[in-house]
Write a structure and sequence with these properties.
The chain is of the alpha+beta class and about 250 residues long. Helix content is about 20%, strand content about 45%. It contains four helices and 14 strands. The strands form two sheets. Strands 1, 2, 3, 4, 5, 6 and 14 form a seven-stranded antiparallel β-sheet that branches. The protein has a seven-stranded antiparallel β-sheet with strand order 7-8-13-12-11-10-9. The protein is globular, with a radius of gyration of 19 Å.
């Protein structure tokens, strides 16, 4: 009898581990807008000799993302309740860059009034991830209706694979082609939440290089947040997840 109870407990644990993410009703924390740099070190370049000044950023400064470049920074978007870099168990050299970044997954818009917009790019390769991008999508405007996180994952898996292969990866002055080798719908735990995660194994054939994209999905009202992580080896998504927290 005791062995039977142990077996049942093990089976229940296995079922729980394999459970699908729970659909959570989340409300926007305000009007959708670009996030801010809450803290970090601001770099302002002066002159033509690549000289720059460094200034500490404080929360009351509320520097909008895209206006300045910062490192060791904390990113925050109140509407979607997401932070990157605060109280992280791994120290990340986060850089938050401006609008010159060439995105793979969106149309380049930085306007929160559009159907999809990019907000931030961070990078810091010393702790298992190379880059985190945040994309927000107004599903009724972009897709004609709001989808659940599961429906979105099933819809977007092939769509984003095509975006990857249609894009060109800039390497110095050259633009290289990308090939998706594998794709799957997986899950990742971020700040205690089990989220759907689209995973892609990608080849840069001209460089004989392989890399990964992980896209964690989190719905807030009718918006879907895409947390896009680019990394060079498979634990990278889990490392990046340690740098992210939610407040709604």
């Amino acid at each position: 009898m005791k062995k039977l109870l142990v077996l049942i407990s093990v089976l229940l644990m296995l079922c729980a581990c394999g459970a699908e993410p729970e659909e959570i009703e989340r409300e926007l924390g305000g009007e959708p807008e670009r996030g801010i740099i809450e803290s970090g070190i601001l770099q302002d370049y002066v002159g033509d000799d690549h000289e720059y000044t460094e200034t500490e950023i404080f929360p009351e400064d509320k520097i909008p993302v895209g206006e300045k470049k910062a490192y060791d920074a904390v990113y925050y978007n109140k509407a979607f309740g997401i932070r990157i870099g605060e109280n992280s168990p791994v120290k990340i050299p986060v850089d938050i860059i401006g609008d010159e970044y060439c995105e793979l997954f969106a149309n380049g818009s930085r306007d929160p009034k559009s159907a999809e917009f990019y907000d931030v790019t961070t990078w810091g390769g010393s702790n298992g991830h190379s880059e985190i991008d945040i994309r927000y999508e107004n599903m009724p405007e972009f897709r004609g209706k709001a989808l659940s996180e599961k429906e979105y994952a099933e819809t977007a898996l092939d769509e984003f694979a095509k975006r990857i292969e249609d894009a060109k990866f800039q390497h110095y002055d050259d633009f290289l082609s990308l090939t998706v080798l594998e794709k799957e719908i997986d899950t990742v735990k971020i700040d205690g939440e089990n989220l759907y995660c689209l995973k892609y194994h990608v080849a840069l054939e001209e460089l004989d290089l392989k890399l990964y994209f992980g896209i964690a999905l989190r719905r807030t009202d009718d918006w879907m947040t895409n947390i896009i992580v680019t990394y060079n080896y498979s634990p990278g998504m889990e490392y990046a997840a340690k740098c992210i927290t939610f407040d709604n």
